[in-house]
Amino acid sequence: MGAMNIPRLLGQLQDADLAADACREQIGRISAELNSDALAPERAALENMRDSLKNLNHQLRETTAQADDLTSRIQVYEEKLYSGRITSPKELSTLQKDIELLKGHRAPHEDRALELMEAIDDAEDGIARAEATLQRHKEALEVRRRELGEKMRTAGAELSGHEARRAALLTEIPAEAAEQYRLLRQQKGRAVARVEQGACRGCGIAVTSAWLHRARAGEIVRCTNCARILYLE
Prior knowledge:
This protein has 5 helices and 4 strands; from the N terminus they run ααααββαββ. By secondary structure, it is mainly alpha-helical. It has 2 domains: 136 residues, Helix Hairpins (Orthogonal Bundle); 58 residues, no CATH class. It has a 4-stranded mixed β-sheet. It comes from Dehalogenimonas alkenigignens. Pfam families: CT398_CC.
């Protein structure tokens, strides 16, 4: 390949490199999404709901046990009251007062137990809804993961094609020109700039007639402003 084609080959090499970079970026984004746990916050929220339900059930057991203990004591006192064994009005009056006192102590526990049972019902309903939502999201995520897997395979195949194209171009480009390109690309991201309407597309600065003539002839010339290698179609 003659020297007049080197700038164009470098432009093609840059196209292949930029396309390969885009594929790598896409693969990186896909990989990051595949490796992320998108449903972690949802699972954590559900676990917190389950923990809250456990706590409510624990409170209900304790409250019910306290109410049951008071009920047992009331039953003992009522058995004495109605057994007929106690005939003293004073003792009977004392038993009645004790029973009423115990019932007064029991009432808040019973009220609290009702509140807890309502809260438990609400919590169970909320958990059921959250579980159903999580299941739907899991199914949607599986579909998304399959789509991402296909995109990953496509991007990988495209990357291989660009890398093969790059390798083929390098066999036609002199080592010195390839090294210039490598250094410029390392410094600027884009090492080669097309000349359009008499201006460098890399920086927009007009290219002199002499530089245009040399670039048109296929020489490796660089923009006097941005230092990129110039080429014309």
